[in-house]
Amino acid sequence: MTPALDREPTPPRTLFDPAFLQKLEQLSLISRRRVRGWQRGERRSTVQGRGIEFDDYRAYQPGDDYRYIDWNIVSRLDRLFVKLFSEEEDLDVHLLVDASLSMAEGTPTKLALAARLAAAIGYIGLVNLDRVSVAAFTSAPGPRLGRLRGRGRAFDLLEFLAQLAPSGETNLALSIRRHLASARGRGLLVLFSDLLDPHGYEEGLLLARRYRYQTFLVHILADDELAPRLAGDLRLVDVETHAAVEITADAEALRAYAGARDAYLRGVERFCFRHGIDYLRTASSVPAEDLVLRYLRQGGLLR
Questions:
Q1: If residue 71 lies in a helix (H) or strand (E), which one and from where to where?
Q2: Are residues 66 and 204 in the same domain?
């Protein structure tokens, strides 16, 4: 099990141990979209053209460059064929981490798990020469680190994520709109959030799809949010809005909560499926190593 983390900034070296980093270096991010990066990276593009590695042949068409005609095939088949090459291109990876006050809940906290997962995915991108941007969001503009590239920027990424602290309220739509307005290039957007947004989560997720990003949502909830251990007469206070409600936590109330919880989670799953958003839900107590090496690979984000 991953040890509980306090809410103070964590030194970058404690996010991962060297053995786990070595495992991350064997992985790469999966892009299901056509990639046209700014520089050639370690990813095989689905776009065929003049690249660095031979891929296939196709019949010559008017306008093709004569330099790519394979004259050996012409001499044998008396037909013109041109060589095709696969280009290695980089991918823009955008990591958005919910750093609102509700992410301070859980053991370890939801924010601690989100930071570790973002660090792992970002590190994989850097090792594979993808361009990685990371931003923390609340209702107010949060810190961000833009367009890192190469293994040498890994410390900057880990230091940024280790120093995140929860504050403010959640406004998913405003945060995503703010980030995408200044982002360069389309690519992969990975969102880490508990989705506890009084404005709703739908508009923000639809914005990412409208901008044609491949979107992957990691939905993180605390154990007590999934299965609350409450009893008696209580006054519950929202940590972000400070709205309060008085309840009696008896068996009937807990059953009603479980029913509402299940309906809400099914609704999130259906929404993501309907709009082509990859979705993974987890409790904050699940070790980040298990999520990365097993569930994110099964979910189609990593290979």
A1: helix 71-77
A2: no
